[in-house]
Amino acid sequence: MMLFIYFLIYFLLVFVIRSVLLKIKTGINPLTFNKTDDAHGYNGKVFTVISLLELIVVGIYAFKIEWYKYLLIFWYLESDTLFKVGWILLIISLFVVWFAQSQMANSWRIGIDEKNKTKLVTKGFFSISRNPIFLGIMMANIGLFLVIPNAFTLLILSLSTISINTQIRLEEEFLKREFGNVYLEYAKKVRRWL
């Protein structure tokens, strides 16, 4: 049940509340994934599937434990140590993502915003990683896999790794066009992940 509550809090804080606050403050909808069949729109659909899959898997673990065995458990990875490491990653992830979003302030978006100009954020967590929000999300996915190691959490981890790396490259191309040499200089100093 704790895992389910954690994910509800995570989704509320990181996506819902953050989006509502930005919309109230700026009038801009931060959800920028389009409905087209280009790479950006497709990646938005993949993010949605990953999020729903996470909620279903965590819901089964919390409320239908008798169904959990059908998720193809990796029993050999179930240990107190990995469980604790997983929870540590989940908690750290929430703080990293929340604070990185706070540091982006009005520039934070879910996806690429071609319509509204934003500032290039290079301070705070962004002075250590060009993608601290994605880093935090990856930490959460690894943490989830370590807490409940099964075929579906491995699938979530795999899909999110591919999807996030694709999104990073799409965003990098956009930032090169948007900020030119300023972004290129920043990219020389700060690594993509860590």
UniProtKB/TrEMBL annotation:
<protein>
    <submittedName>
        <fullName>Isoprenylcysteine carboxylmethyltransferase family protein</fullName>
    </submittedName>
</protein>
<dbReference type="GO" id="GO:0008168">
    <property type="term" value="F:methyltransferase activity"/>
</dbReference>
<keyword id="KW-0812">Transmembrane</keyword>
<keyword id="KW-0472">Membrane</keyword>
<dbReference type="GO" id="GO:0012505">
    <property type="term" value="C:endomembrane system"/>
</dbReference>
<keyword id="KW-1133">Transmembrane helix</keyword>
<dbReference type="GO" id="GO:0032259">
    <property type="term" value="P:methylation"/>
</dbReference>
<feature type="transmembrane region" description="Helical">
    <location>
        <begin position="46"/>
        <end position="63"/>
    </location>
</feature>
<dbReference type="Pfam" id="PF04191">
    <property type="entry name" value="PEMT"/>
</dbReference>
<keyword id="KW-0808">Transferase</keyword>
<keyword id="KW-0489">Methyltransferase</keyword>
<feature type="transmembrane region" description="Helical">
    <location>
        <begin position="133"/>
        <end position="159"/>
    </location>
</feature>
<feature type="transmembrane region" description="Helical">
    <location>
        <begin position="83"/>
        <end position="100"/>
    </location>
</feature>
<dbReference type="InterPro" id="IPR007318">
    <property type="entry name" value="Phopholipid_MeTrfase"/>
</dbReference>
